[in-house]
Amino acid sequence: MVETEAFIDEAKAEIREAIGDANAVIALSGGVDSSVAATLAYEAVGDQLTPVYVDTGLMRKGETEEIRETFSFMESLRVIEAQERFFDRLAGVTDPEEKRHVIGEGFIDEFESVANDVGADYLVQGTIYPDRIESEGNIKSHHNVGGLPEVVDFEGIVEPVRDLYKDEVREVARELGLEEVISERMPFPGPGLAVRIVGEVTPEKADVARESTHVVEEELEEYDPWQAFAAVLGKATGVKGDNRVHGWVVAVRSVESRDGMTARAQEIDWSTLQRIQSRITGENDDVARVVYDVTHKPPATIEYE
């Protein structure tokens, strides 16, 4: 386990040395990784830093409003409404790796636009060790590692938590005094709901994934999962009222893990699963059925794409 006080001092020194007198933007998603990176960078270089949160339309329910509130102390925070641009980029894209690259390029374009506006030469990211391992091992490209375009318009990319595992990042978050809603938050993928949608990403599917994930997070809170969410798999027939429908199939996933490198599917009480399916099908007119994923990692990954 990392020695948090020493790590914080070293990370701030590294950020100051890397950025110098220049300006930087930080990719802020609201997850614990980027929040720790943003806080370290903000404490290290102050108003040289511009935090940038990009609303891709693929975020959790209420995420954007929560970001505005939680990070309001950072006066230079930029919230970019980019939903339409991201959905346009993703139109017709069905390959999982291509999705990640499209989203990575979209993020970089947004960050570069802000960087040009504020005269920033550096990009700070919350990349952690498992992100690098999975990208380098061709398990999957992370939007902030393998998903980046080959050429970016920055003098350098600074990754202060690149050698930490998730549980170590949480320790640093607690030491920094970040609110529990951040330090203990469930992981959320950088590409957002796009990797919880099998096939083409559309606003309709994103809405189903977002609302269903909100239900899952609420209903499974007592199980204290490492990660729990809902994914949209495709369509199947069902019956609602007296009508036959062809609606979405939603998969519920809940796992236990230490660092995300391996994971075990949680054993969930049948009555809880029934309550989840009842809420998801009842609150989403276009959902025909709900299934529970019992697969561990390996052989599956935690996310679907």
Automatic annotation (TrEMBL):
Respond yes or no to whether keyword Cytoplasm is given for this record: no
Highest taxon of the lineage: Archaea
* Gene3D superfamilies on file: 3.30.300.10, HUPs
Which parts of the sequence bind ATP? Answer: 29-35
Question: What's a single GO MF annotation on this record?
Answer: ATP binding
Instruction: Indicate whether Nucleotide-binding appears among the record's keywords.
Output: yes
Keywords in alphabetical order = ATP-binding, GMP biosynthesis, Ligase, Nucleotide-binding, Purine biosynthesis
What EC number(s) does the entry state? Answer: 6.3.5.2
Question: What does this chain do?
Answer: Catalyzes the synthesis of GMP from XMP.
The organism is Halorubrum yunnanense
Identify the residues that the record assigns to the GMPS ATP-PPase domain, covering every copy. Answer: 2-185
Q: Under what name is this protein listed? A: GMP synthase [glutamine-hydrolyzing] subunit B
